[in-house]
Amino acid sequence: MISRALALMILAAPLAGAGEAPFLVTAQWEPGSAKRPGAVVLRFSPDAEDLRVNRVPAPRLEWPQGVAAVPASAPGETRPVSAAPGDPQYLADGEAYRLYFATSPTSGVVEGKVVFFYCSKNAGWCKKGVSPVSLALP
Predict the structure, then answer these.
(1) Cβ-proximal residues to 4 (8 Å cutoff; 6+ apart), any chain
(2) Phi, psi of 11 (to 5 degrees)
(3) DSSP letter at 41?
(4) How far apart are CA 37 and CA 34, in angstroms?
(5) How many Å apart are CA 135 and CA 127, to the nearest integer?
(6) Residue 137 phi/psi, 5° resolution?
């Protein structure tokens, strides 16, 4: 007879390996201007109030093969700076995180994934998160 705890661990194992983080992540293309290059704007909405996205290591966007884009830095903006009160180690709730590109990626809808690290301040743990995103490009 399998104990109840062991049975729960066996059932939960496929869910734990799924790799998707408990966040809704959205991505939007922001055209460049004379002052800064174009950017992919990421926003993270956690499923629980105590979850926070780390600034370091920075979130990154993984493109499918064949999508050409040249990463760039905006003048004076190597990392986002939060204007919201709180811990500077984490993105504030609803804060936009911008990934700058010297050239616009290909046009159309691109399916990619965002890789980031997040922490539970109440429980005292951190994990790597992976979330799929769809990005509509002009």
Answers:
(1) none
(2) -70, -35
(3) E
(4) 8
(5) 25
(6) -110, 145
Rounded Cα distance between 27 and 43, Å, is 7
The burial class, CB within 10 Å (0-12 / 13-18 / 19+), for 11 is: exposed
Question: Tens-digit pLDDT profile for the chain (138 aa)?
Answer: 443 333 333 333 333 344 567 999 999 999 888 888 888 999 999 999 899 999 999 998 888 766 655 566 554 444 444 444 567 889 988 889 998 887 766 778 888 899 999 999 889 999 999 999 998 887
Q: pTM for the complete prediction? A: 0.72
Contact 122, 12 (CB under 8 A): no
Burial of residue 59 (CB within 10 Å: 0-12, 13-18, 19+) is buried
